[in-house]
Specification:
Blueprint: E1 2-6, H1 16-26, E2 33-39, E3 43-49, E4 55-61, H2 64-68, H3 80-87, H4 90-95, E5 107-115, E6 129-138, E7 141-150, H5 162-178, H6 197-204
Parallel strand pairs: 4-5, 5-6
Antiparallel strand pairs: 1-7, 2-3, 3-4, 6-7
Length: 205
Amino acid sequence: MITLKVDIERFPKLTEGLVQRGLAAYVDWLRCVAVPNLTIWHEMDLAVLTRAGCLYEYEIKLTQADWNGDKRKDVVVETDWHRQMAALGPEYAARHAPRPIRNLNHVERFYYVYAKGLTCPDWVPEWAGLISVDYKAQNGAMWLDFHSVRRAKSRRVEKPSEGPVRKIYMAAYMRFWNYPMNLPLSRQVEVIESPVPEYEEAQHG
């Protein structure tokens, strides 16, 4: 269990962003790479790459309706387009086979992180971990409590390869410079002076 004191003026109610910040502390971001809203095979509310190179996913649910509807991400839906591709031959059938929205082939541990008071749907697999989040007022401040209800089981999957790992590190880098630092993108910068000579030499030297 971990408890965090929260600025009520900045976060008057529980939000996904607040839960993401709290989860970063929960997983000890100094010992791993934690990236919010990461999309590689599918979008992850929080992706965590451990020192051992294993990928953990945290799916945040703040309403019962959202959690109940999450099952659709794991359902394979075959459409007319898939059937047309399959009719072209085995190669096309394999390449364009219907797949679920959520691809957990490289996710070692998967967690549902949910607001206290929600009920876990009966279709949630037994290997999925559960973390309850309580946002409450106490002693004149707001407190965010994370309570481990059930530890996720290891799924014994293949670790992400070099390409996805590089994307995870790049996403973490972009999150730092683009959001907290509030820096503009290069295409949004108007150059009004010549570049610093030392930088030019480093770029072309």
